[in-house]
Amino acid sequence: MSRFGGLIAFWGLLAHTVVRLEGLPLLQGQTLPLSLNKAPSLPLTQVQSLPVSPVNTLPLGQALPLPALPLPVSPALPIDPTNLAGSLTNALSSGLLTGDLGGTLENLPLLDILKTGGASGGLLGNLLGTVTSLIPGLNNIIDIKITNPRLLELGLVQSPAGHRLYVTIPLGLILRVNTPLVGNLLKLAVQLNITAELIVAKDSQGRSHLVIGDCTHPPGSLEISLLNGMAPLPLQSFLNNLTGLLTRVLPGLIQGQVCPLVNGVLSHLDVSLVHDIAHMLINKLEFVAQL
C-alpha cells in the first residue's frame, strides 16, 4: 500500500507543476510540455491579434453593388401571318367606318342619275310610264332613298404569285322607293361586293407603301331583293325594270365612291403594319389564303 500511495502522490505533484507552468509567460522559443491529448493554451491577454485587411462597411439594409452585366437581347419575334392578316382587315374596316363610309353611301346621287340617265324623261321617267297608267297621281313624283348602309366582314386573299392582295369589301343598304300618295311603294335590300387589289409601291425615298392597283365590282356580286313581301301585280313590271336599271347603274356608282376611300385608308395605315405586309409581298411569302 505504501508503494501505491507514493505513486498517487507523484502523479498529483506532476499535475500541479504542469498547471503552474501554463500560467507563466513564455519566452521566445520556449514551449510548454504537452500533457496527454491536450493542446497548449495561452491566456487571452497574451494572444496577439493578426493583422486584418480593412473592410468597407455598408449602411444597414444596403446591398453590395453587383458588377454590371450586359443586358440580354431578345431575338426578333417571327411575324404571325394570322395576326398580320387580321390586323390589316381590322385597320381597313375601322378606317372606312371612321372615314364616313355610311354617309357616303347614303348621299349617293342615285335619284338624279336615274332621272337623267336616258332620253325621253330619263330612265326612271320611262319606267314610271307603266306605273302612272295604272296608279294615277304618280306623274314622275317619286323618291328613292338609301338607308341602313352597312359594312360587312372584309375578306382577304393573296394572289397565286404571292405579291398582291385582294380585299373584298361587302356592302349592304336599303333602297326605299317612296311616293307622296302611296307612301313606301317598294323596299329593296341591296348587297354589293367591291374588290380592291393591293400592291406595294415605293416612293422617291425608297419607303414602301400599300396602294390600290385595281378596284372594281365582280360580275354578279350585286343582289337586290324585295323586303316588303310580293309586289302588287301592277308594280311587278316596274319592279323588274327598276331592278334591271339598278343593276346597270348602282355598282359603278358605289365603286366610284368607295375605292377612293380605300386608297385614303391605306395611306394612313400603321407604318409597322405596312412594313411587315410589304416584306411578305415583296418576298412572295404566303400569309393569307391564296386564290
UniProtKB/TrEMBL annotation:
Molecular function as annotated in GO: lipid binding
Annotated localization: Secreted
Primary localisation category: secreted
One Pfam family from the record: LBP_BPI_CETP
Record keywords, A-Z: Antibiotic, Antimicrobial, Disulfide bond, Glycoprotein, Immunity, Innate immunity, Lipid-binding, Secreted, Signal
Superkingdom per UniProt: Eukaryota
Example of a GO biological process term: negative regulation of single-species biofilm formation in or on host organism
Residues annotated as signal peptide: 1-23
SUPFAM superfamilies: Bactericidal permeability-increasing protein, BPI
Family under the similarity heading: Belongs to the BPI/LBP/Plunc superfamily. Plunc family.
Reported function: Lipid-binding protein which shows high specificity for the surfactant phospholipid dipalmitoylphosphatidylcholine (DPPC). Plays a role in the innate immune responses of the upper airways. Reduces the surface tension in secretions from airway epithelia and inhibits the formation of biofilm by pathogenic Gram-negative bacteria, such as P.aeruginosa and K.pneumoniae. Negatively regulates proteolytic cleavage of SCNN1G, an event that is required for activation of the epithelial sodium channel (ENaC), and thereby contributes to airway surface liquid homeostasis and proper clearance of mucus.
Name of the molecule in the record: BPI fold-containing family A member 1
